[in-house]
Amino acid sequence: MIGLEETGRYVDSVYFKAWDEYDHHSLILTKSNSAGLAHLAFKVETLEDLAYYEKKVEEFGCTTTRISNGIRLAEGEAVHFILPTGHHCELYHEIELLGTTVGSLNPHPWPLGAKGIAPHRLDHCLLTGDDLKTVTRFFIEALNFRQSERITAVNGEELLGSFLFTSNKAHDLAFVKGPDAKLHHAAFHVDSLHDVFKAADLLSMYEVPFDVTPTRHGITRGETIYFFDPSGNRNEAFANGYMAFADMPTITWTEDKIGQGIFYHRRELSASFMKAPT
Q1: Which pTM value belongs to this model?
Q2: 8 A C-beta contact, residue 19 and residue 69
Q3: H-type alpha helices, the chain
Q4: Does the annotation mark 236 as catalytic?
Q5: Which of 49, 28, 53 minimizes the C-alpha distance to 39?
Q6: Marked catalytic residue, from 25, 93, 185, 189
Q7: Is 217 an annotated catalytic residue?
Q8: Domains and CATH numbers, the chain
């Protein structure tokens, strides 16, 4: 239904990439008795960067361990640590390069025979946690992320949502207030609102359970649809969103406008959207 490419199997895990991604995988599904996120990982540019950020993570106060080369398919050595929100996180540099489906010599704009939603790439994920101020500070101070947007209490004292980026996307990672160590959703990038509606059509044809039908976010300005996979994890097809820049000011949404921030047209949160983290 999503249209990812299977790139390998190893022990109890299946590895996937989207058609426009170069690396061997961006998503691993592992057999488990429960849904949710086993770990998230970020690629660094060099092995020297791996050592540099390992030190920065330790200076922040997180314990690091090294994961040996070859523990996972097509991956090199990684640095593992646990975020202030309880999520397992890793940094790595080496990963096998497979290339995109359309190649890098006179490529077509999209692959013939694409299946399902056929996203370009894994776009971002949204996690839940209790101490959003500390986890935000961790990503900014230890890993050089920046905060594009935030949700606060009306008085500005409590942080209820934090949207973080390290590329030029509106967000690469986000957190909302909730139970520690939980996944709210994983998002896949599609080109346009037309592709969001196409995704909705396909999901409806195959009676995949929706959480939210096509709409727009106020936060990030992205166009979106949410649905559940057979394990119960929430997924998103996400289009557009603005470009973020290192020197942009952080955009603030207050709690009284959170409905409009999340679902700009409906202007209120659905009960299901705030529940069912895995």
Answers
A1: 0.96
A2: no
A3: 47-60, 132-143, 193-205, 258-262
A4: yes
A5: 28
A6: 185
A7: yes
A8: 5-92 (3.10.180.10), 121-274 (3.10.180.10)
